Amino acid sequence: MACIVNLTVSVKPELRAEFLHEMSLILPGTKSFSGCHFVYLSENDDSDMIEAVSKWDSRSAYETYLAWRQESGFLGSLADKYFNGEPSWKYMPVLMDFNK
């Protein structure tokens, strides 16, 4: 079953522009990862909160992608440098898709 994934992070305000630039380089690779349909980076009403919203073939497909990012050490270094606190994930299985 397809799955929407919402990743929310609190970004250190003084590093926000640098973080967004980093994401502009990284997220095209996410989009090309097997199983990814789309990825959007958006701003929450609280401007320190950045949300990555993506759609995957399945939760398992996203977890494969996430494991790849974690194994490379990339995710940990990104969190250490830019995040205030821990990221938060929300997984939402798609019940109906009217975009086909």
Considering the chains and any ligands shown, give keywords for the structure.
alpha+beta; Alpha-Beta Plaits; 3 helices; single chain; about 100 residues; 4-stranded antiparallel sheet
Folded structure, characterized:
The protein is 38% helix and 30% strand. The chain has 100 residues and is of the alpha+beta class. The protein has a single domain (3-93), classed as Alpha-Beta Plaits (2-Layer Sandwich). The longest helix is centred in the first third of the chain and has 16 residues, at 16-31.
Portion in helices: 25-40%
Task: Please report the number of helical segments.
Answer: 3
Count of spatially separate domains: 1
Shape: globular
Order of helices and strands: EHEEHHE
Strand order of the largest sheet: 2-3-1-4
Largest sheet: 4 strands, antiparallel
Strands, total number = 4
Rg computed from alpha carbons, rounded to a whole number of angstroms: 14 Å
Gap from first CA to last CA: 15 Å
CATH domain class name = Alpha Beta
Annotated CATH topology: Alpha-Beta Plaits
Secondary-structure arrangement, i.e. CATH architecture: 2-Layer Sandwich
Average pLDDT confidence is 93
> Spans with pLDDT under 50 lasting ≥5 residues?
none
Strand content: 25-35%
Class derived from helix and strand content? alpha+beta
Please outline the helices and strands.
Elements: E1 3-10, H1 16-31, E2 36-43, E3 49-56, H2 59-71, H3 74-82, E4 88-93
Antiparallel strand pairs: 1-3, 1-4, 2-3
Brief description of this entry?
This protein is 38% helix and 30% strand.
